[in-house]
Specification:
By secondary structure, this protein is an alpha/beta fold. Helix content is 40%, strand content 12%. The chain is globular and about 70 Å long. This is Glycosyltransferase family 1 protein.
């Protein structure tokens, strides 16, 4: 935060009784229909605006879709999108394309193409360079910068405002699972090259003053895998849109329907084990079938499993559906399933539970933090165990009373713990603490204490301590 920033701040009072903040929310990938990062930005930005703050989302392709209009007018004009275009090298229908000469604008574009040509994934680095350049040119326009897991070199140094970073979970976990699933040396070398950006993310993460994450499991992984100091990592749970994801008795259940949300070609999501489990379930319940919210794979382990077990007519893939269609699809299922080997949080679990659809979920990563206790709010099984998945699915499909009990308990759990309003409130509290620390380091007075929000009391000691910590962890 800079001394020049304060006079131009928006007038009024935010929901926490303090001055509204001007927030730059960065996301190098913003698709809200595929991937947790876009969902996070869409819902968090809306709730921050509802709390009275001004939020400018700065994103690259696929651009975020924001809820800019509220039927009650409660955040009109406080939420906006600034497009920061890349070369969009992975767009459909021509991924890994070679751009024309006229598309190159500067050396960052050349770096983006060169990294892709050599088998790497350039977007975290190149977006960070573009975003850092824009933020420094707009010094004084924001009170805080919130990076959504870019972790690129371009965001190090003075951005003109304090930096808070969300790490949903370390991408090193994805990297290891893909290496474990690689069938040969050529594939392992390709995975290592693609995930080369994780070395940068490790180095950047260790220099960050404030990290937010979505679960206790992710917090432990960030400390272990990325080497971030434990006292710098704070858990702020995310959640479901419980107004949209809600029960509706008017939507009929489809007998035997199981619904899951999964990227079929990502080993971490465990879809191949669910397909194998479905084959076992259908031996006892022939009407059982699976609807996957995601792209149909043309090849790979999932496609091979569907063919091997003769499930072509029992597994359906849907993509590009609206929010309303997704909610109705979940409502129509007798069972929702999260078969992942690992999750940093699991929005699909929270969203299914919010609709009171009974859940079968693995115990991978942070899923138990969301899904709760086996037999109380879900049926829990070990990750990667198709037999256990099959047994739980068969049990739940055959017991209407159990489905009703787990569904009702699951919704109550989400309402009590995992909503976007709660996530936004917790995030703002962390923003204000980091702003206080930045003011103390700059020798500026701290704001008066507000009931319910701790001012960073130790911030006055932060300059020398923080600097030495940053050097020690680089």
């Amino acid at each position: 935060m800079t001394a020049e920033a304060s006079p131009a701040a928006p007038v009024g009072i935010a929901a926490d009784g303090e001055r509204p903040l001007r927030i730059a929310l960065l996301t190098y990938k913003g698709n809200p229909f595929c991937g947790g990062q876009g969902v996070y930005v869409r819902h968090l930005s809306r709730e921050l605006a509802r709390l009275g703050h001004r939020v400018e989302v700065i994103g690259s392709q696929p651009y975020p879709v924001l809820d800019e209009h509220d039927e009650h007018g409660s955040y009109a004009g406080r939420l906006s999108l600034t497009e920061l275009p890349s070369l969009d090298l992975y767009r459909q229908p021509d991924p890994f394309r070679t751009p024309g000469r006229s598309e190159y604008r500067d050396w960052v574009d050349a770096l983006e193409v060169a990294t892709m040509w050599t088998g790497g994934f350039p977007e975290p680095l190149t977006f960070s360079l573009r975003a850092g350049r824009q933020l420094r040119a707009r010094r004084g326009e924001f009170d805080v910068v919130h990076d959504n897991q870019t972790l690129g070199y371009g965001l190090l140094g003075d951005l003109g405002a304090p930096l808070v970073t969300t790490i949903h979970h370390p991408i090193t976990v994805d990297r290891q699972l893909e290496l474990d699933a690689a069938e040969d040396l050529k594939r392992r070398l390709s995975v290592r090259r693609w995930y080369a950006f994780t070395r940068m993310q490790k180095r950047v993460a260790r220099r960050l003053p404030s990290v937010l994450t979505v679960s206790g499991s992710s917090r432990a992984e960030i400390v272990d895998h990325l080497g971030v100091r434990q006292d710098r990592v704070h858990v702020v749970h995310i959640g479901a849109d419980t107004t949209l994801f809600a029960p509706d008795p008017a939507v009929p259940e489809v007998p035997g329907r199981i619904v899951t949300t999964s990227s079929a070609d990502v080993p971490l999501k465990g879809l191949v084990f669910l397909v194998e489990a479905l084959a076992k379930v259908r031996a006892e319940q022939p009407h059982a079938h699976l609807v996957v919210v995601g792209r149909r794979p043309e090849e790979g382990p999932v496609a091979q499993a569907v063919e091997r077990y003769g499930l072509e007519d029992a597994v359906q893939f849907v993509k590009g559906i609206s929010d309303a269609e997704l909610v109705d699809l979940i409502r129509s299922a007798e069972v929702a399933c999260v078969p992942s080997l690992y999750e940093g949080f699991s929005l699909p679990a929270a969203e299914a539970m919010a609709t009171a659809t009974p859940l079968v979920a693995t115990t991978g990563g942070a899923i138990p933090e969301v899904a709760g206790t086996d037999g109380e709010t879900c049926l829990a099984v070990p990750p990667g165990d198709a037999g256990a998945l099959a047994a739980a699915l068969t049990r739940l499909l055959g017991d209407r009373e159990l489905r009703a009990r787990l569904g009702a308990a699951g919704r109550e759990r989400v309402l009590a713990r995992f909503t976007w309003a709660r996530a936004a409130e917790g995030t703002v509290a962390r923003y204000r603490e980091e702003i206080d620390r930045a003011r103390a380091r700059a020798g500026l007075p701290l704001p008066a204490a507000v009931p319910g929000r701790p001012v960073a009391a130790a911030a006055a000691a932060a300059p020398s301590e923080s600097s030495s910590e940053s050097r020690a962890t680089c």
